[in-house]
């Protein structure tokens, strides 16, 4: 299939060229997403063509899909069946280099990427696979994490802290197999976008981060338009009424259950659980983001300044939400700059 701006997500999934990865372009697929064209999401800025070509590569550099829970764990908690990792090895992938040159790229630290989607689904092709393909082009291996989500009400049982457990298990799973994957276990980075950036940001916190799982801290966190303070979202919900208020409440209810309060949500406010040992951060966001208010990133920056956490930030005037690799926008090349920051701090 020729990949053009007029191709729909549904057509990509039906073509069969990208199986089994097409199941992870958007998880928990809905009709609106199925019928949207690539142009709807920003054909040029999201790197669709590069990503889809990467997923079709064969041989040693081919991408591979893994489950990270054992059968007995899935039997005890069936929703763990949905937790997957897509490994995108560096090697020669997308670089045009020969196998001999790829040997120098082996045994590099990896990036674990957490796509966003309001903890309802994952926008995997934009905020996961495209990022992995671009990291591969830079010579770095990537793992895309599909953690547990909860799409529709009722929210009688909260989702949290299942995504955190999935992230921890993914790091442990990769660490145990790092020689097989030819990646370094140390010096890794965790990247995330929107809700996925909230999850990635939690990985550095005192209450829900790596230290609680007896796992090493990441060398850096790469955060795209992160949800940071739950007070911001609670206040936003309070300003609405009717169906709009109910819809806005879903993001918070997924975390804490339908009986959430402002105080109970503080468990998931990143800025309230950071200390001087928080990892270095590369932060990228846009002022015109209609989903995650830019004040969320400003709160994060203020806290990092207070704690003297090493960080760099890029705040663009325009670019909205879910810009992914952001080719041709004000943030063009941001991921390369984030990688250089990661290299400098690790």
How would you portray this structure in words?
There is one protein chain. The protein is α/β, with parallel strands linked by helices and 346 residues long. The chain is 37% helix and 14% strand. The protein has 15 helices and eight strands. The protein has helices spanning 9-15, 31-35, 38-41, 48-55, 71-76, 99-102, 124-137, 162-176, 178-181, 195-202, 230-238, 242-256, 262-265, 295-307, 334-345, and strands at 64-67, 84-88, 108-114, 142-146, 183-193, 220-224, 281-286, 311-316. An eight-stranded mixed sheet has the order 1-2-4-3-5-6-7-8, with helices on both faces. Helix 4 (48-55) crosses helix 7 and helix 11 packs antiparallel against helix 12 (242-256). The longest helix has 15 residues, at 162-176.
Which key features would you list for this structure?
alpha/beta; globular; 346 residues; 15 helices; Rossmann fold; eight-stranded mixed beta sheet; single chain
């Amino acid at each position: 299939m020729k990949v053009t701006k007029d191709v729909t997500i549904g057509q990509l999934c039906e073509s069969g060229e990208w199986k089994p990865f097409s199941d992870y372009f958007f998880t928990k697929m809905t009709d609106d997403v199925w019928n949207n064209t690539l142009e709807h999401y920003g054909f040029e800025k999201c790197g669709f063509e590069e990503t889809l070509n990467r997923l079709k590569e064969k041989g040693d550099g081919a991408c591979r899909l893994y489950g990270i829970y054992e059968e007995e764990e899935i039997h005890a908690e069936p929703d763990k069946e949905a937790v997957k990792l897509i490994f995108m090895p560096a090697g020669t992938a997308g670089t045009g280099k020969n196998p001999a040159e790829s040997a120098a790229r082996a045994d590099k630290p990896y990036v674990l990427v957490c796509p966003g989607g309001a903890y309802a689904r994952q926008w995997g092709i934009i905020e996961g696979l495209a990022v992995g393909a671009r990291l591969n082009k830079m010579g770095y291996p990537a793992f895309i994490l599909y953690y547990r989500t909860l799409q529709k009400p009722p929210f009688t049982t909260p989702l949290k802290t299942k995504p955190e457990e999935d992230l921890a298990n993914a790091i442990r799973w990769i660490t145990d197999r790092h020689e097989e994957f030819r990646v370094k276990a140390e010096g890794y980075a965790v990247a995330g976008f929107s809700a996925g950036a909230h999850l990635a940001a939690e990985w550095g916190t005192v209450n829900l981060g790596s230290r609680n799982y007896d796992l090493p801290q990441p060398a850096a966190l790469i955060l795209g338009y992160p949800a940071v303070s739950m007070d911001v979202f609670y206040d936003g919900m309070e300003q609405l009424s009717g169906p709009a208020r109910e819809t806005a409440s879903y993001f918070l209810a997924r975390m804490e259950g339908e009986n959430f309060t402002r105080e109970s949500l503080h468990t998931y406010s990143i800025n309230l659980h950071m200390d001087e040992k928080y990892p270095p951060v590369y932060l990228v966001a846009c002022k015109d983001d209609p989903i995650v208010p830019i004040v969320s990133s400003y709160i994060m920056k203020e806290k990092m300044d207070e704690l003297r956490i090493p960080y760099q930030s890029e705040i663009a005037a325009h670019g909205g939400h879910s810009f992914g690799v952001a080719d041709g926008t004000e943030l063009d090349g941001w991921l390369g700059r984030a990688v250089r920051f990661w290299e400098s701090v690790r």
